[in-house]
Amino acid sequence: MVSLEKKLTYQQRIKEIPKLAAFNDLLLGKVISIPDVLYLNETDKIYFGIINAIQSNNSKAFLNNYNKKSKSNPSKESPSPFVNDDFLIFCLIVGIIKFKCDKTWIESIISIRVRNSVTITFENILNENFYSKSNLPEIVVMHLQLNNRELLTNDILSHAFIGIFENTNLFESKNDFQILCAINTYEIIICLKEAADSVEMKLVNEFILKFSKRIRILSWLIQTLILTGLLYSLFTLISINPQFKKLFDKIGSVLKILGYIGLSQLINLLPIIKIKLTEILMRIFGYPKELLIRKRTQSEFL
Fold first, then answer.
1. How far is it, in rounded angstroms, from Cα 243 to Cα 241?
2. I want to staple 129 with a disulfide (CB 3.0 to 4.6 A). Which of 124, 157, 185, 187 is the partner?
3. How confident is the model at residue 247, as a pLDDT?
4. Distance CA 167, CA 159 (A)
């Protein structure tokens, strides 16, 4: 798991070592600070040049640095130090895939590296085998973050999160490359999770508004149909029943007075009927009772 205390302590180490700072800035998408070239050897110049080219999306600058490095052809019997430089090899892979360069040289370099989980992950990235159980998922996530974010699926992110969470010896390993990949992968997962939750809540709120509006319309339709049905039934009864019509005519004047009173009372009752009918319909369609109480107190049904 990425301990906050250890992470803060490690941040100081990143600042003190330009190579780590540049790689961390690459993963974060920040502009790197290139040290004075007078104090850099040829491999480090290429390393910083490659990162700068990737960040600026400058294929010409990348190819210039790549061609310089690809002139080196070490063997398994006499490998050069850069062969097992995880930072440089990772950046080369990112650039080669980003700018669609030939993979033959980098594949030969990886073939003579020390055979470990990082090397296997590099091989699988070149072969686009992102779901291999042999991968270090934090490396895969950072590669995809830099080159193809559309392939950052929930499966890959979940696998990475579990792997980082269970790696209790991350900082004790002293492997700066893995530590930086793990820290930045963890941050990406948290940010994506928060963004997903925010989008999900927005969609839920939009659904609630649409659902409530449609229930209110349905309530109004039912209420209108009931009133229309009652008036139609009364009119039909008067029309087809002469005795009821005579009785209605005799007490017509009284009904008129009572009618005005009743109409005013009915108008007063309509909002209450509307609210109760809306609540009943929402409960029938499974709307939570607690939210109904909240809406009632906020007068959201009117």
1. 6
2. 124
3. 61
4. 12
Measured in Å, how far apart are the chain's first and last C-alpha atoms? Answer: 51
User: Average pLDDT over the chain, rounded to whole?
Assistant: 80
Angle between helices 176-240 and 154-166 (to 10 degrees): 130
Amino acid at 300: E
- Going by the DSSP 8-state scheme, the letter that residue 113 receives in this structure is S
pLDDT in tens, 244-283: 666 666 555 444 544 544 544 555 556 676 777 777 777 7
Predicted pLDDT of residue 201 = 52
CB neighbours (10 Å) of residue 146? 20
Do the beta carbons of residue 209 and residue 203 sit within 8 Å? no
Contact yes or no for 30/5 (Cβ under 8 A): no
| Cβ neighbours for 7, distance < 8 A, ≥ 6 positions apart | 183
pLDDT digits (tens, 9 = 90+) for 6-18: 667 788 888 889 9
C-alpha–C-alpha distance, residues 213 and 215, integer Å: 5
For residues 95, 58, 152, 21, the Cα torsion angle rounded to the nearest 10 degrees is 80
The CA distance from 111 to 84, in Å, is 11
Residue-level pLDDT at 103: 95
